[in-house]
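Fold these two proteins, one after the other.
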Amino acid sequence: MAEKVLMKGNEAIAEAAILAGCRHYFGYLITPQTEIAAYMAKKMPKIGGCFLQAESEVAAINMVYGVASTGKRVMTSSSSPGISLKSEGLSYLAGSDLPALVVNVQRGGPGLGGIQPSQSDYFQATKGGGHGDFKMIVLAPSSVQEMASLTVKGFDLADKYRMTSMILADGTMGQMMEPVSLEEAAVADYDKSWAVTGTKCEREHNIINSLSLVPEELEQLNFKRYEKYKTIEENEVMYEEYMMEDADICVSAFGIAARVAKNAIAMARAEGIKVGMIRPITLWPFPVKAFKAAAEKVNSFISVELSMGQMIEDIRASVEYNKPVTLCNRAGGMIPSPEQVLEVIREANKGGNK
């Protein structure tokens, strides 16, 4: 086990990306993820990597597209409005089946909103991220250690399935400091025979392109892509169950909201309320089976979110609308307190005892 060092979440992402073999970073400064770009600007030149502050978010994501076409590990990062500007490029990456890592350290919105933490980009991330039929693998860390480990995991999944992975963090996770263990990551020998690396007249030319003007061919490409997505849904779901063994109420939360919820659960347990938590780590693929199994045991669900209620839709669909799902939320950059979550748990407990 590597020695632990005290790091800010954004810096942990950057260092983990370097240890995972990323040598190309293209970005544009925006709060609250600026430390990622600053860290890369300092470190990349020292290790023979490439850091480039692009003239815009649009330029940055298209630079990612170019390097991803060569099969090299590449990443970009931004915060909510910046990710919106990258959405066309995200669709092009999906349409060309290219692996890349994108980090979104969310801030309040819509519009320019504010610079405080939020989770209101959930729909944007999990329902595509741009135009057309496509998915991204979406990973949600709830500690600085997971900011690092899920960065490595994101690169691996992107290479394994030739698609974009996204780290969906919130401003608190990006700015908070915790001890983190960082180690050089072993990079698997993924097939990159599709990459545009120069043929040396020894093989056929590879072409990277998202344009398909024959509708029958485009349809088949989409069908094939969704078969891949089905494989991911069967094999790559990650979640944490916390005190669910005897729970009558299931709380669900991710990121900083999950940490708040754990404190509320401890307070509720001290009052004799049997409550637990399912924390999705992959927001896509969503842990549908875990929630469906929980619905066989618990009386109700509570979704704790830093939004007006987005993940709650996936919870309701997962339990097939057979159990009540209550929203406990703050929005616009506000974070719910453990006491707020506890009060919602108490109300749910009353309803379950009627």
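Now the second one:
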Amino acid sequence: MIGYVCVGTNDMARATGFYDALFGEMGVKRMMEFDGFVIWGKPGAAALAVVKPFDGNAATVGNGVMVALSAGSKDNVDKLYAKAMELGATDEGKPGPRGDTFYAAYFRDLDGNKLNLFVMS
């Protein structure tokens, strides 16, 4: 249902470095790249884009907005969360169970955008 999600940045080089390293751990590479817009994903799957706001104003964090990334396994949740922390992300919830069938970790990227790594069993 979701084609892609955009998160804003005020520092494209810093943001793309963060996501290149994080998504590299998932085997995901850049799909498209334009001035002020970079998107990571795989053909036929949902993708994530980092954008400079098109209206020219500063990027700000959406209150209540979160991007959830399917990690495939608990080990991947743990590994990717650790990578995000290593890259300078801010903890919003360490890896662990949330209920009986949901395992997740939460963090904010370098621009303050909230992301979630998860697996459901």
